[in-house]
Amino acid sequence: MSSVGLLYVGAVLFLNGLMLIGLVPGKSAAILNFFVGAMQVVFPTIILIQADNDLPTIFGAAGLYLFGFTYLYVGVLQMTGISGEGLGWFSVFVAACAVVIGALQFTLVGDPVFGVIWWTWAVLWLLFFLLLGLGKESLTYVTGWFTIFVAHLTGTIPAFFLLVGRYETNTGLALLVAVVAAASLGAAFFLGRRGIPRGDASSREGVAVSPA
Question: 199 pLDDT band (50/70/90 cuts)?
Answer without folding.
Answer: very low
